[in-house]
Amino acid sequence: MLDWTDRHYRYFARLITKHTWLYTEMVTTGALLYGDVARHLRFDDAEHPVALQLGGSEPDELARCAKLAEQWGYDEVNLNVGCPSERVQKGAFGACLMAEPDLVSDCVKAMRDVVDIDVTVKHRVGIDQVESYDYVRDFIGRVSEAGCTTFVVHARNAILNGLSPKENREVPPLKYDYVYRLKRDFADLEILINGGVKTHDEIAAHLEHVDGVMVGREAYHNPWVMADWDACFYGAADGASSRDAVVEAMLPYIEQRLAEPGAQLRHIARHILGLYQGQPGARAWRRMLSDSTLLKDGDGGLLLAARDALGRG
User: What is the model's pLDDT at position 86?
Assistant: First the structure.
């Protein structure tokens, strides 16, 4: 979710669901150790519970970054062992690390040794042409020995060469049965499933077999899908009451962010284009919040104008 689940999107998502765990976009160890830490790690307190997803393969560097995550107040550190992009592979991390379970285990142990927050791992069911269930079973078995108790499993193989990241989310077949089997084989571990999940009914069906469900792009492009999650899956009734209420709640946040140096409305507006997806007038909403001229000097009032353009007053 690089460039997608930044702090602006996460604040917006939190207005819709109060209890769902939120994950940052993947942040590399190099970006934290040699770049602008505040730019990558700052977040609003309203985002809790929130996890920092790290990309890296050097145990010492990951340990230092995990410590930063804890100091900044994150609730979890998640190691990305699932991203298939060639850019990530050049840094020797992401899905290619599935071929090195001993190294992943060392990375997890190094992080767990320096923090008290959870250290979790997100990965695929396999890489390239490896189709054996034993591959992912042995991977989890080895990494769990380092103390990792939570695994987020994208139920597709990662094809490291020949497919784009987008194709890697669509072409390799989904193997939900592999993830279900992992939960049966590792009953004491927390196993979450990821990949291709779009609807409430699909989430509920998966929860019959595993401990949790991660939803990515559907929650981004059609964010209102999250509106009933608190009631249905957390037994809570404090989620968003309406799309219009979310718009109103975004206004103080936008005012605060626009007061920061270099902030622009487009940095926030791009994340909320899908709020009215499927509703009458949604095209007008998206058009206004994508208009560079309107966005250039715009503020929260543009959201109200775009909402009025839906034709409901």
Answer: 62
This model's pTM is above 0.90: yes
Please state which CATH number belongs to domain 7-233.
3.20.20.70
What angle, rounded to 10 degrees, do the helices at 7-16 and 243-258 form?
Answer: 150
Sequence ranges of the domains in the chain: 7-233, 243-312
Which residues are tagged catalytic? 83
* Fold type of domain 243-312: Four Helix Bundle (Hemerythrin (Met), subunit A) (1.20.120)
pLDDT exceeds cutoff 90 at 63: yes
Give me the phi and psi of 53, to 5 degrees please.
-95, 125
Question: Model confidence over 9-59: pLDDT tens digits?
Answer: 999 999 999 999 999 999 999 999 999 999 999 999 999 999 999 999 999
Q: Residue ranges for the binding site?
A: 53, 122, 154, 194-196, 216-217
Mean pLDDT of the chain: 94
DSSP letters along 25-60, please? PPEEHHHHHHS-HHHHH---GGG-SEEEEEE---HH
DSSP string, 127-188: ETT---HHHHHHHHHHHHTTT--EEEEEEEEE--SSS-HHHHTTSSPP-HHHHHHHHHHTTT
Higher per-residue confidence, 115 vs 159: 115
Angstrom distance (rounded) from CA 113 to CA 138: 23
